[in-house]
Design a protein that fits this description.
With 350 residues, the chain is α/β, with parallel strands linked by helices. It contains eleven helices and 17 strands. The protein has two domains: 183 residues, Quinone Oxidoreductase, Chain A, domain 1 (Alpha-Beta Complex), CATH 3.90.180; 137 residues, NAD(P)-binding Rossmann-like Domain (Rossmann fold, 3-Layer(aba) Sandwich), CATH 3.40.50. Helix content is 26%, strand content 27%. The strands form four sheets. Strands 3, 4, 5, 8, 9, 16 and 17 form a seven-stranded mixed β-sheet that branches. It has a six-stranded parallel β-sheet with strand order 12-11-10-13-14-15, sandwiched between helices. The chain has a two-stranded antiparallel ribbon with strand order 1-2. Strand 16, helix 11 and strand 17 form a beta-alpha-beta unit.
């Protein structure tokens, strides 16, 4: 069976190629892709600013925010049927190495793969995707494929707050740095718990969307003294939960100024490879609990249940700013790469 599949060969070298799909292994499913989001990490790989995408090994197929319909299953697949709507994990653990057997995060797996970042784990930017049964997750029949493609990015914001022992409730004041898709997913999670949420974001259009999704306050950090403004809005207490979802150096450095005593600091935004000066001593006197969140662990089914139960309260598709047909993928990537102020979540439709 032939299919048109995207391959990223090197920075800015994105090609749609027709290939012969391999036969399914017994534990694999064949998914007809219907929607796939372009993540900021996809853009960073596309413009050559990230080593996460491994085209140094061989061309690979991007796309870890996908949804589609199963059209064929391997002879040992037992949890899915042809016709099911599905999405899938991004970070793929092997399940049998020492770290996996000790229950560590998939990012600790000694044989870790990443859907849409490596030649051995192709992503959803193609007409079809083959993936192992254990990494796929069933979506409710009534969901749109766009909503299904938002599960992976939403799971990052959700796990960023609740994973690895985290929590939020109505007594909390949550400060979120960054109003991109991940930051706004964290906003939705916090507002579903009825927490007070303050968004820190310089782009006005993103702040407007944050207000639409329920933010109590939005702050442009370039237009004020951020620490003074946060303390004013929190009666001098600071945030009880601080979520860093921007990866911005100034935001990271500001965390310890605006966090309240005994705050839970949740780090999601990517900054690997950079040294960011921070006043780390404040973590001692404020007794801060700092938790990183790289990938998720056993959270996709929970994310789907969570989204299903609050989808009448929050418009998830409001996160999508632009839609492009698959054949216009080059225009879609150029929009995502060159118009970050306005391009929020760019979605490919099949």
């Amino acid at each position: 069976m032939k299919a048109k599949i995207v391959f990223l060969h090197k920075p800015y070298d994105l090609r749609i190629e027709e290939i012969e799909l391999p036969k399914l292994k017994p534990d694999e499913i064949l998914v007809k892709i219907e929607a796939c989001g372009i993540c900021g990490s996809d853009v960073e790989c596309y413009i050559g600013k990230s080593a996460e995408g491994r085209y140094d090994i061989a061309p690979y197929t991007p796309g870890h925010e996908w949804a589609g319909q199963i059209v064929e299953i391997g002879n040992r697949v037992s949890t899915f049927n042809v016709g099911d709507k599905v999405t899938g994990d991004c970070v793929l653990d092997c399940g049998y190495c020492c770290n996996c057997k000790n229950g560590k995060m998939p990012s600790a797996c000694e044989n870790m793969r990443e859907t849409g970042f490596r030649p051995d784990s192709p992503g959803g930017m193609g007409e079809y995707l083959i993936i192992e049964e254990r990494y796929a997750h069933k979506l409710p029949d009534e969901w749109s494929y766009e909503e299904g493609a938002l599960v992976e990015p939403f799971s990052v914001g959700y796990f960023g707050i609740w994973g690895n022992g985290g929590y939020v409730d109505a007594s909390d004041t949550v400060i979120i740095f960054g109003a991109g898709p991940i930051g706004l997913s964290a906003l939705i999670v916090a507002k579903a718990a009825r927490a007070k949420v303050i968004i820190v974001e310089p782009f006005k259009n993103r702040n407007n969307l944050a207000l639409k999704l329920g933010a109590d306050e939005v702050i442009d950090p370039t237009a004020c003294n951020l620490k003074d403004e946060i303390l004013k809005l929190t009666d001098g207490l600071g945030g009880s939960v601080v979520v860093e979802a921007s990866g911005n150096d100034n935001a990271i450095a500001s965390i310890f100024d605006v966090a309240g005593h005994s705050a839970r600091v949740r780090l999601i935004g990517h900054s690997v490879g950079r040294k960011v000066p921070v006043e780390i001593g404040l973590t001692i006197w404020k007794t801060l609990a700092i938790t990183g969140s790289g990938g998720i662990k056993n959270f996709m089914p929970r994310t789907i249940r969570f989204m299903e139960r609050i989808k009448n309260e929050f418009d998830f598709k409001a996160l999508i700013s632009h839609r492009y047909p698959f054949k216009d993928i080059h225009a879609a990537f150029n929009k995502a790469a060159n118009d970050k102020k306005n391009a929020f979540k760019v979605m490919l439709k099949f």
